[in-house]
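Hey forum,

I'm writing up a methods section and want to include a predicted complex as supplementary material. The small molecule is zinc ion. I've pasted the protein sequence and the SMILES. Can someone with a working setup run it? I'll credit the forum in the acknowledgements.
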Amino acid sequence: MGLWNSPAQLFKLLGHPARLAILNILREGEQCVCHLEAVLGYRQAYISQHLMGLREAGLVQDRREGPNVFYRVAEPAIFRVIDAANPVGEPAAVPTARPAECPCPKCQPVAEPMPA
Ligand SMILES: [Zn+2]
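Reply by user p_vandermeer:
Happy to help. Structure tokens for the complex are below, copy them as they are.
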């Protein structure tokens, strides 16, 4: 499991709406920081601060690719904890929209060559 020391530390980490929102976006796989920024509408510094806390606890891992830094969930078991905490009958909120303003490679597919 992760690097957190105790259930209390884990619940403290999960006890913040921004960190829960970040983890829910990462359910579907890794995303770049710019994507989290575009989906959540928070400043990058604010998101980075929360990602740092999640990374130090071993909940997420980062990977740099060119100019982008991607984050993924290192402990998928965490979603069992999150799902168990959702009110009965409420599906987990998983944002699926691809924001048009997001510059990440997943949201901006490589443009087709212009026909001659
Ligand atoms: Zn994106």
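Some notes you might quote in the supplement: Residues 35, 38, 102, 104, 106-107 surround zinc ion (CB under 6 Å). Residues 62 and 71 are 4 Å apart (CA to CA).
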